[in-house]
Amino acid sequence: MLKTLQILSATFRLAWQELKNNKLRTFLSLFGVTIGIFCIIGVLTTVNSLEKNIQDGINSLGTNTIYIDKWDYGAGGDGDYPWWKYVKRPEPKYEEIRLLREKTNTIQNIAFTLNTGGQNVVFGKDMIQNVSIYGVTEEFSNIQPFDIQYGRYLNGSDMDHGSAVAVIGYENAAKLFGTADRAIGKSVSFKNKRINIVGVIKKQGKSLLVSGWNFDDCLIVPYRFFRTVFEERYSQPNIMVQGKPNVTTEAFKDEMRGALRAIHRLSPETEDDFALNAVSDFSEAFSKSFAIIKLGGVLIGLLSLIVGGFGIANIMFVTVRERTTIIGLKKAIGAKSRTILTEFLLESAFICIIGGLIGLILVFLLAQILSGPLQFNVYISYDIMALTVGICVVIGIVAGIIPATIAARMNPVVAIRSK
Based on the domain organization, do 289 and 217 belong to the same domain? Predict the structure, then answer.
């Protein structure tokens, strides 16, 4: 053990001395490794972060959740969306949530939702535009969990009576009242309807998901009140159904399909006149897309690493030539060939790791740039950092194996006489 530590210590000292004595040569040799690691780790980090941000947005739509709608959210992936097929389908109806409860036993939560965007909300002389108004039933917040920063959420009495109350998104509250905490108890109006603010939703932040729920810029009102202001058929009605924890998505979809076909009284040969949009399907589709992007980034980075590997091999060949006399003296006083081989392989790996760490630092700088002005959360995992070290060690050993073998096989007499 002590001998191994001595070899490691001596190797690192020699490698560090080589770096200091030949700065330009070392820089040029490390440059390829640095760029290669930057490409691979940068792409993996960016893609992983992008995927996590989007997957978080998808997961915010509800876990083990199905959106029942006449529109198929996943259709038209090839650019040809058959809207003419879906537009003729019947809209989901509020009464269907009771029928689905009666005909199935796998539902944990079910909610009926309506929403309309582009609304003007007025408070005194102030007005905000492009507000999304959501009309929801009682179990909506169980499927779409969010925190209330100030005040309270809509209660059962509000839902049953269609009370003129609402919870408001944090951004909207700040725009209308200066600060979000001043919104509680205030009355706002839209479409000439006055409504009282009872709660403010905690700030959610931006999501990379284009569709979904924008809780920062919305008003959430009881479904029964929403219907007194807007027509249901023009308000994107859909049913959100969340399965019980022990039910798989496929089994849940099968039961929902059977129940809906019975409710719609469809004959066995008739095609479904509804769509079951499972959140898990969106997640899987994105994962497959990102896997292809990751593979492309890795291949590009590997090309740079191959170039960097030749650079490391070159510096090791030069190092072996410069230390030929020292190698001969070591072998003359009893150093074994495997010890010489190990020393040069460790030195090659060490130099390569330095290049990789520089590349990793560049990735951290990229992360700071993206996380700041662009408001994009970047996640650099420990797995990626471990992968960096592993790649560098492998590249270093592969690049250094030939010069290290040449050094290990030197005849000590010939090596000492080389100068």
Answer: no
By the 10 Å C-beta count (0-12 exposed, 13-18 middle, 19+ buried), 208 is classed as: middle
User: What is the tens place of the pLDDT at every residue in 230-244?
Assistant: 988 889 999 999 998
- Counting other chains too, the contacts that 373-379 makes at CB distance below 8 Å and 24 or more residues apart are 375/205, 375/206, 376/49, 376/50, 376/53, 376/208, 377/49, 377/52, 377/53, 378/45, 378/46, 378/49, 379/45, 379/48, 379/49, 379/52
| Range(s) of the domain holding residue 402 | 2-57+284-416
| Amino acid present at 323 | R
> How far is Cα 403 from Cα 327, in angstroms, rounded to an integer?
12
Whether residues 112 and 226 share a domain: the answer is: yes
Q: Is the distance from CB of 344 to CB of 8 less than 8 angstroms? A: no
pTM of the model: 0.65
pLDDT (mean) for 250-279: 90
Alpha carbon distance 363, 358 (integer Å):
9
Whether residue 114 has pLDDT greater than 90: yes
112 with 244, same domain? yes
CA-to-CA distance for 294 and 290, rounded, in angstroms?
6
Q: What is the mean pLDDT of the chain?
A: 81
